[in-house]
Amino acid sequence: MAKMGPGVVVTGLTLGALAAVSLLAFQANGAQDRAGGAKPVASTSSSTGGPTSAAPSASATPTAPALPASSGSGTRVVYSVSGHYVWLIDPKKNPQVTAAFPVTPGSVEPNPGSYSVYSRTPSGTGTDQKQIEHVVRFAQQSGVVFGFSATVDGSTASADPKSKTGGIRSSRPNGQLLWDFAPNGTKVVVVA
Predict the structure, then answer these.
(1) Inter-residue contact 73 to 14 (CB < 8 Å)
(2) CA distance 132 to 153
């Protein structure tokens, strides 16, 4: 019987530990999806009737507008051009609307229709030169790229009407929800 040196034993133990840690990391990566998925962030309506973001609290009740009837079917992100609102829909969950939140549109709006997420970037610089994160792109029209993002500083100021930008901005927590919900290939339905 051949003797094993201490180096072989240490190497074997190290490889076993790495495999166990990798397995645990892989399992933890999808744990939020299995634990009930994204939760809606509370919102309220301002005195002008437009939606404004509010910090979630234990007593907050979401007051999102109803999901538009013409918003398609299946797992999807729905964006209302006129309402400046986003809904995250998963028909396998109860309720199917896993989150709904207000957004600030860019200076140009996408045409109503059905699209797919084709590109995602964890962070970058927006056309307004602001640092952004959780960039989820779904359409290009007339040289304008349309996508969802959040500014790192948390601002959701209106876009400069002099520049053509298709960046649809949300709060950072809602940007994270959308990022987690919409990998490449996810359907995005834009309604009027």
Answers:
(1) no
(2) 8
- Whether the ω angle into residue 95 lies within 30 degrees of 0, i.e. cis, is yes
Tokens of 7: 């180096």
| Average model confidence (pLDDT) across the chain | 80
d(CA 117, CA 188): 7
- pLDDT tens digit string along 40-78? 443 333 333 333 333 333 333 458 899 999 999 999 999
Q: Terminus-to-terminus CA distance in the chain, angstroms?
A: 77
List helix spans (H) across 31-80: 31-34
The reported pLDDT for the residue numbered 42 is 39
pLDDT score at 156: 86
Domains of the chain: 36-191 (2.40.440.10)
Q: Looking at the DSSP assignment, which residues form a beta bridge with residue 26? A: none
Gap between the Cα atoms of 148 and 167, Å rounded:
6
